[in-house]
Amino acid sequence: MKRRSFTSLVAGLSLAAGMMGSTAMAQDDMRIALVVKALGIGFFEAAAEGAEEAAKELGNVEIIYTGPTDTTAEGQIEVINALIAQGVDAIAISANDPDAVVPALKRAMDRGITVISWDSGVAEDGRQMHLNPSSTELIGNTIIKLAADHMPDGGDVAILSATATATNQNAWIEAAKGVLPNYEGVNLVTTVYGDDLSDKSYREAQGLMASYPDLKAIIAPTTVGILASCQAVTDAGKIGEINVTGLGLPSEMAGCVESGATKSFAIWNPIDLGYSATMLAHAIANGAEAAPGAEIAMGRMGSVTLDDTNSAAMSDPFTYDSSNIDQFKSIF
Amino acid sequence: MTASRGIPDRLRTPMERNLKSWESLLMLVAIGIFVANSFASPYFLNAWNLSDATFNFTEKAMIAFAMALLIISGEIDLSVAAIIALASTAMGAAAQAGVGTEGLVLIGLSVGLLCGAFNGILVTGLGLPSIVVTIGTMSLFRGISFIILGDQAYRGYPPDFAFFGQGYVWWVISFEFVLFAIIAAIYAVLLHMTNFGRAVYAIGNNATGALFSGIRVGRVKFILFLLTGLMSGVAAICLTSRLGSTRPSIAFGWELEIVTMVVLGGVNILGGSGSILGVVIAAFVMGLVTFGLGLLNVPGIVMSIVIGALLISVIALPRLWSMWRAG
């Protein structure tokens, strides 16, 4: 009697598996796996959209968009093992841990799979190349340009950064100072630190407005700082007088762009990033050499040149303003 | 069933009957999943791929065996994943200081034992409930790792240390899989063939009765916590070696997967019954399901749903069946 329940259970399982099996694709396509930190994150969903766009353009490419449920290295390793077993042609990964995934990715490369990292990189011996969304120089230039674009007569600008020890921000600010001579009339008066805390950043922004009455723009190369500055400028009733710009997230900045406190801001575009990663993985899997100095094409995004660590920068950060904020605010 | 009621030569308790059907049910589920996987994906039936799949469960199963004994005795340890993090952090710090592979193994095992002893003393010495104690030590042990490492990582383990998590004993048989089999055998003997094992069952069924029968309940439970800590140390060595690096988030969330494995294996969560064979099969079931679904690129969240559904249905089916027959 008991056996009936067993057989029905087994039958149910085979049925379920059979239905899933029907999605298996033709063998002759090149299969590129886009492995992300975790599924269900808007930024990565947008990157997957870019990857599909690249696949359509290339033709005969199947994108496997996958990743663990939460952002753990162990989860990503299980995903990588499953991809190795399927014999995919290429893996493009945004890693949860630059080191822990290295042994698994090395095994993938041993079995002839092209491995590149993008967004969040993998240690050098675990990938053939890494694609940064942007570079220090490009970001430094962009944040000054964003401010300069909206002050044709020049004027005072101030930088509101994260912590005084933040490696990324300090490098960007250094680069920004380097390009200042190219922007005539733009006068950087000071750099203050909001420590990436909303309330401290807000007070620092208030302080800037009090200390520099002629201030025309606040540049915040941090998502916390730009939002707090926008709030401070709005509360002080100085919309239109002081333009808040820098690096921010479209979903958080939509209100500031609508109110006019922020004319434009920048951040990397995840769609372009997924597109470029797919193009690069496809090129390398097709025999393009990934070595220092090599130049690899990536479709509509132009091409990249690899540096000594086989890393490359995709492009200038993407600029968001009132014309495109509605499209992106729901994405990330 | 028969007209004359003879005296049976051995008693078959309902528990025993249930247990027997449990393992056969699980075995059928495992075979069903295996067959379904082979049909669903052309990549499944490949020696290397199956070997890779074993890494999905071997480390967790090592802890699950010790956890099974602990749960049978009526206690639980939710700090196992945090012990892995602390043991791995200690090994990382030692590797940084130039300690060799033997030393690292010794440190991993010692940290595991110490953490287990700490849990054991709090539960058996102070008489605190184990679920509360180990929820506390779960935060404590991992917290120490976070304080030591922050957002940094330890790398640079000696090259021969990689053998534990990445080495193969013969062809596709990995070191981890061999270790898993040996540990399973040891725990099967310990639970099913020794006085100690009988004492574990007795404590789980009636701790007071066991005490009055002359079983040193506190000591047995303390040893079980020690064993669970030790196994966490062993798993920490394997996992650290496999990853080649340590971050404080290592093995995050494993305690629930390990408890799931134990319960799926037929161990009564309230204590008193269960077998090692069941846990072994449950380990394979969970490994095969996650690997099979991974081959089909099913998103991780769906995998969690499948594992959850599997757990509930395997537990509910025998109960529903007996209700249907009785009603």
TrEMBL record, chain A:
<dbReference type="Pfam" id="PF13407">
    <property type="entry name" value="Peripla_BP_4"/>
</dbReference>
<dbReference type="InterPro" id="IPR013459">
    <property type="entry name" value="RhaS"/>
</dbReference>
<dbReference type="InterPro" id="IPR050555">
    <property type="entry name" value="Bact_Solute-Bind_Prot2"/>
</dbReference>
<comment type="similarity">
    <text>Belongs to the bacterial solute-binding protein 2 family.</text>
</comment>
<feature type="signal peptide">
    <location>
        <begin position="1"/>
        <end position="26"/>
    </location>
</feature>
<keyword id="KW-0732">Signal</keyword>
<protein>
    <submittedName>
        <fullName>Rhamnose ABC transporter substrate-binding protein</fullName>
    </submittedName>
</protein>
<dbReference type="InterPro" id="IPR025997">
    <property type="entry name" value="SBP_2_dom"/>
</dbReference>
<feature type="domain" description="Periplasmic binding protein">
    <location>
        <begin position="32"/>
        <end position="288"/>
    </location>
</feature>
<dbReference type="InterPro" id="IPR028082">
    <property type="entry name" value="Peripla_BP_I"/>
</dbReference>
Automatic annotation (TrEMBL), chain B:
<keyword id="KW-0812">Transmembrane</keyword>
<comment type="function">
    <text>Part of the ABC transporter complex LsrABCD involved in autoinducer 2 (AI-2) import. Probably responsible for the translocation of the substrate across the membrane.</text>
</comment>
<feature type="transmembrane region" description="Helical">
    <location>
        <begin position="99"/>
        <end position="122"/>
    </location>
</feature>
<keyword id="KW-1003">Cell membrane</keyword>
<feature type="transmembrane region" description="Helical">
    <location>
        <begin position="301"/>
        <end position="321"/>
    </location>
</feature>
<feature type="transmembrane region" description="Helical">
    <location>
        <begin position="222"/>
        <end position="244"/>
    </location>
</feature>
<keyword id="KW-1133">Transmembrane helix</keyword>
<keyword id="KW-0472">Membrane</keyword>
<comment type="subunit">
    <text>The complex is composed of two ATP-binding proteins (LsrA), two transmembrane proteins (LsrC and LsrD) and a solute-binding protein (LsrB).</text>
</comment>
<keyword id="KW-0813">Transport</keyword>
<feature type="transmembrane region" description="Helical">
    <location>
        <begin position="61"/>
        <end position="87"/>
    </location>
</feature>
<dbReference type="Pfam" id="PF02653">
    <property type="entry name" value="BPD_transp_2"/>
</dbReference>
<dbReference type="InterPro" id="IPR001851">
    <property type="entry name" value="ABC_transp_permease"/>
</dbReference>
<feature type="transmembrane region" description="Helical">
    <location>
        <begin position="21"/>
        <end position="41"/>
    </location>
</feature>
<keyword id="KW-0997">Cell inner membrane</keyword>
<feature type="transmembrane region" description="Helical">
    <location>
        <begin position="169"/>
        <end position="190"/>
    </location>
</feature>
<protein>
    <recommendedName>
        <fullName>Autoinducer 2 import system permease protein LsrD</fullName>
    </recommendedName>
</protein>
<feature type="transmembrane region" description="Helical">
    <location>
        <begin position="128"/>
        <end position="149"/>
    </location>
</feature>
